[in-house]
Design brief:
Layout lengths: L10 H9 L4 E7 L14 H16 L3 E8 L19 H17 L8 E4 L14 H18 L5 E4 L1 H4 L12 E6 L3 H4 L19 E3 L2 E3 L1 H7 L1 H8 L4 E6 L7 H18 L2 E4 L18 E4 L2 E4 H9 L3
C-alpha cells in the first residue's frame, strides 16, 4: 500500500486511504526482511521496529493492518525454485514459519483484533506442484495456528485459498479463521501482457464479457466461480477477498465492466476486499490502462471511475 521505494509508512497514502472511506491495509512482507535461510535466526529487531511504526501509523488513522508473509520460508508464488527449502515438505522451513508467526504473536499480544490480523502465507500453490497436497497445507496451517494461539488466542488469522488464492478450503473451517480468496478471474482480462504470468503469451486483446480458455466469462460465470467460497461462508466461516485488480494494459472500458460485475458479487455476499494496489500498475493511482480517466484528488492523479466503484461497493 506504499509507493515503490518507500521504506517507512507514508502518512500521505494512509491519510488518503482513510479519507476516501476505506479501513483495511494489507502489508505484504518478505520473510528475508526478518530472518534468512538456512539457519533462520530470530527476527531482526530493526525489521520488527519498522512493522511497529507501520502498525502505529495505521492505528492512528483507524485503519486495520493485515500483516502478511508474501514470501514465506520455503515458499513464494513466483520464484519458488529459488528457495532452499519447501515449506510444505521440509521441517526447517516449517519450524521457521511457525517461529516467525509465534514471534509476531508475542510482540503484538494486547493489540486489539480490530487493529491487527495475521495473513499467514500468500497464495499457496496449485495441487500437485512440487508434491503440494491439501494434507500438507493443512498440517502446516494447523501447526502455525496452534503456535500463534498458544501466545495470543484471540488474534484474527487469515489463510489464503490454494492455487494462487482461488481454491476454497472447507477442510479448515473448524479453526475459526478468515478465509481469503482472490479476484483475478478471468486471467485473460486481469493479467493481459503480465510478463510474470506464463499464460499471458499469445492472448488476444481482452474482451469482457468474453471467452477465455473455453469458458464464457460474465457476471453469471463470476458468481459460479465463487460458489465454493459461498458454501464455506454459508457454513459460518468469514470470507474476504485479500487481493483483486486488473493490470495496466487491459483497455479501461473492458476493465471497468469486469470490475463492476466482480464488485457486485462481493457486495451481494458482503465480502470485504483489498485492491492490489494503491499506487502502481494495478492501482487506483498510477496505472496506464488505455482510455483511463484520471482527475486530481487529494494531491493524486486518480482513476476516478474505479475509485467511485470501490466506494459504492464498500462493505
Amino acid at each position: 500500500m506504499r509507493p515503490a521505494g518507500a521504506t517507512e509508512p507514508d502518512p500521505r497514502v494512509l491519510d488518503t486511504i482513510a479519507s476516501w472511506g476505506f479501513n483495511f491495509v494489507r502489508l505484504p512482507c518478505d520473510y528475508r526482511f526478518f530472518t534468512a535461510p538456512p539457519a533462520y535466526p530470530p527476527a531482526a529487531e530493526h525489521a520488527l521496529a519498522r512493522i511497529d511504526r507501520i502498525l502505529d501509523a495505521c492505528r492512528a488513522r483507524g485503519l486495520h493492518l493485515s500483516l502478511n508473509l508474501h514470501r514465506a520460508p520455503g515458499y513464494v508464488i513466483t520464484g519458488w525454485e529459488s528457495e532452499p527449502h519447501n515449506l510444505w515438505a521440509d521441517p526447517p522451513a516449517q519450524d521457521a514459519f511457525a517461529a516467525l508467526w509465534r514471534g509476531f504473536a508475542t510482540r503484538y499480544r494486547g493489540v486489539p483484533g480490530e487493529a491487527l490480523s495475521f495473513d499467514l502465507v500468500n497464495e499457496p500453490p496449485a495441487l500437485g506442484l512440487r508434491g503440494f497436497t491439501r494434507a500438507a497445507h493443512e498440517s502446516v496451517i494447523r501447526r502455525t495456528v496452534e503456535a500463534i494461539r498458544a501466545v495470543d488466542p484471540a488474534r484474527p488469522i487469515a489463510i489464503d485459498g490454494l492455487d494462487g488464492g482461488n481454491l476454497a478450503m472447507p477442510e479448515l473451517t473448524d479453526l475459526g479463521l478468515l478465509h481469503s480468496g482472490r479476484g483475478y478471474q478471468p486471467m485473460s482480462v486481469t493479467h493481459w501482457r503480465a510478463s510474470w504470468w506464463p499464460g499471458h503469451a499469445h492472448l488476444p486483446e481482452p474482451t469482457y464479457p468474453g471467452d477465455y480458455d473455453g469458458r464464457w466469462w460474465d457476471a453469471a460465470s463470476l458468481r459460479e466461480f465463487y460458489k465454493p467460497w459461498r458454501e464455506v461462508a454459508a457454513a459460518g466461516t468469514p470470507v474476504h477477498i485479500g487481493e483483486f485488480g486488473c493490470y495496466e494494459y487491459t483497455p479501461d472500458d473492458v476493465a471497468l465492466r469486469w470490475f463492476t460485475d466482480l464488485l457486485d458479487v462481493f457486495r451481494e455476499q458482503r465480502w470485504g476486499y483489498a485492491l492490489w494496489e494503491f499506487a502502481g500498475a494495478f492501482g487506483v493511482v498510477g496505472h496506464h490502462r488505455p482510455g483511463g480517466r484520471f482527475e486530481a484528488r487529494d494531491g493524486w492523479m486518480v482513476d476516478v471511475r474505479l475509485l467511485e466503484l470501490l466506494q459504492e461497493h464498500r462493505i
